[in-house]
Amino acid sequence: MRYSRLLLPTLKEDPADAEVLSHKLMLRAGMIRKLAAGIYTYLPLGYRVIRKVEKIIREEMNRAGAQEVLMPAVQPASLWQESGRWDHYGKELLRLKDRKQTPFCIGPTHEEVVTDLVRMNVRSYRELPLNLYQIQTKFRDEIRPRFGLMRGREFIMKDAYSFDRDEGGAEESYQKMHDAYCRIFERCGLAFRAVEADTGAIGGSFSHEFMVMADTGEDAVATCGACRYAANTERAEIRREEARHSEDAPEALQEVETPSKKSVEEVAQFLTVSPSRLIKTLIVSNGSGAIAAALVRGDHALNEIKLKHLLGWEEIALADAATVERVTGGPSGFSGPVGLTGLPIVADHGIASVRNAVTGANRFDRHLCNVNLNRDFTPERFADIRMAMDGDGCPRCAGTLRISRGIEVGHIFKLGTKYSEALGANYLDEDGQSRPMVMGCYGIGVGRTAAAAIEQNHDQDGICWPLPLAPYSVLVLPLNMKSEEVVSLCRSHRHTASRDHWRQRAPTEPGGDQGKTVRCGRPDGAGRGMPSGAEASQREEP
RNA sequence: CGGGGCGUAGCGCAGUCUGGUUAGCGCACCUGCCUUGGGAGCAGGGGGUCGGAGGUUCAAAUCCUCUCGCCCCGACCA
Asked: ipTM for the complex?
């Protein structure tokens, strides 16, 4: 491709609406343009990068024995009603009607469609295991699309679905995908980690996320320095420390005035105690009537997902002010466990060791001091319901957890029989018995992977693509247009140039910073992350 | 959906508070000259229904009302 013919609208300044680096650089390097919130056009350069990511994915998926298909983006509501997700998926599911008023949706994911396909066409255990994948545009009507390709509403995703005879087979399929994903992200030149994750709305029994480590990542990851344990903080377990009871003797309960001091910091400062002496009481609701109280230490944060699973709820949110007032008798900000009745109280393990604690008094501008477990209040159960923090104990070994940021570029789930049972995807085993297939599903955000590569590979001058993702591998740059020799050499090889070729042929050896870029908008292709490797000139090398 | 902010040329902005020339500036774009070993220079030029609708006024980018779009902070997720 001749550089001068390329549709490559570069910008010298950051567009005002771009926040993160990968978004800014992709816009400035002329790779993407926005059509609407979270909806982007891929320009020639950007699409080449996308295609390179896809190519790596295809090769590794095929190598792992998966077969490529392409399923419809528009899907009948009836299938989603059958799986039960029409009512549960929420507003992210873009729903529409055709001219006959039949309801449809635009696929945010394809468990329903692929399970339907398989139930109609696979009958025998002889046909299993089966793994089908596709690379396709998805639509999720995200509440807040942001950061360019990092969280779009329309986005390109590779999704794969495995079908096995039994749990053992499903675990093998899962492991194969795990390994394939590792190869894919390695080949993309990314520093990543596979971490244990929550299964979220997709459902299923366990899952791993593939995180590209980057400070701008939206997810927090807890990793152990001593063993291989790594988990999303949504899920990360915390080693239970032996409760170290303080030596302090329990003192008499005392109510104190704390005028307009609501937050932990305010109260701790006002009463001159450490935040770890406070016990936070959070009233949560499942949105359909159920409420519960959660107790965590003042210096800890509630993990709503852990609590949600513990309570067996489908949804969880902090209760609104009116609900808090109704169940505690006091305004929000002053809740406490003492005298709290009529709802389940769950306590984090961390509060077991707190003596003479400070809690809300369930009265406006009042807190209680010297609150003690079992004397003043008794939780119904203790559990791990808080967020892992830097320095917490690893649940698997004696090591310590560290928290870092990551971008979720891939997610694999072991689904079990959730969808095969709902939709009747059964097969006949060797004994002629009908059994539900055991499923897994596996996703990669293609555009997000490209964006993550930029977050991880850039310098002050622009994008430094890992070579396997670079839009072009060589930029031939004739530096002396007056020399017919130089010009004709460049012309004659511009279609066939490869890096190796140019190493042999070009009079000038590429510089030491191949694949690296110099600046956005520079005429040598720098800043778009095109390696400015080969130069043709007549100057003698020193 | 709650909270905050922004819509003026392709991009980045000024002008709006305090209504009043032909709506400006930088980059980009076009033409000519010149230049060409790292984002050239000089001269000239094109491009705006000031997000939209309604209102107030002799007069609206500017004031009022409504509306649409977009961005940021929280719950969702590849």
From this structure: 0.82
